[in-house]
């Protein structure tokens, strides 16, 4: 009887602790919120990438608009890094939920960088090669920070997968950096260089 009482006390206690602990630490809505906030970071970045691509693809690209959109993209990624860093660790399921949004963003970034590489001769003739190179480096720095932040929120067993996916984004930007490498020292020099020199 005494034994049974203890068992029943422990069961009751366990039940109560479970009932208290669950809503605080493990409620799916908590996890969902972090997944949702990370998803919305990826969406905002994607929207800004699309805006940038829009300015790159017009018949007569306006460098001021491109630089402006690129600067906005860099700050969007930067604030996204803070959001991701502040979010809780993700469960396996939630981490898997990020696969598709990261792939979508990666594709979007790759297209945009491809378009930016495609207008390189125009960018050069407008003397924006060096500015573009610097912007790409800023994007790469921030995208790398975003990748590190994302990977740190993913369960250890999925981290190498996450790293591989995020690499799609940074590799695409790296292609742009490589394409515009040397622009700051070449004769296709940039605007500030010209105005300083005059
Ligand atoms: C520059 O970007 C901001 C924010 O993205 C936008 O509101 C503004 O209209 C842009 N200006 C130009 C000249 O494109
Ligand atoms: C990235 O875009 C280039 C074209 O700009 C394409 O050749 C390449 O296959 C794309 N890479 C990925 C991983 O989609
Ligand atoms: C979050 O996950 C990372 C990587 O798996 C781990 O190093 C860290 O300790 C975890 N943090 C918490 C609060 O569980």
Helix-strand layout with pairing:
Blueprint: H1 2-26, H2 28-57, H3 63-86, H4 92-97, H5 99-118, H6 120-125, H7 129-152, H8 159-180, H9 191-197
The protein binds 2-acetamido-2-deoxy-beta-D-glucopyranose (3 copies).
Looking at the structure, what is the overall shape?
A: elongated
Q: Count the E strands.
A: 0
Order of helices and strands: HHHHHHHHH
Mean pLDDT: 84
Q: What small molecules are bound in this structure? A: 2-acetamido-2-deoxy-beta-D-glucopyranose
Distance between the termini: 98 Å
Main sheet attributes: strand count, strand direction, barrel closure: none
Beta strand %: under 5%
Radius of gyration: 24 Å
Overview of the molecule:
With 198 residues, this protein is mainly alpha-helical. It has one domain. The protein is 83% helix and 0% strand. The protein contains nine helices and no strands. It has helices at 2-26, 28-57, 63-86, 92-97, 99-118, 120-125, 129-152, 159-180, 191-197. Helix 1 runs parallel beside helix 2, helix 2 packs antiparallel against helix 3 and helix 2 runs parallel beside helix 5 (99-118). Mean pLDDT is 84; it is low at 1-27 and 188-198. Bound molecules: 2-acetamido-2-deoxy-beta-D-glucopyranose (3 copies). One 2-acetamido-2-deoxy-beta-D-glucopyranose (NAG) is lined by residues 64-65, 68, 72.
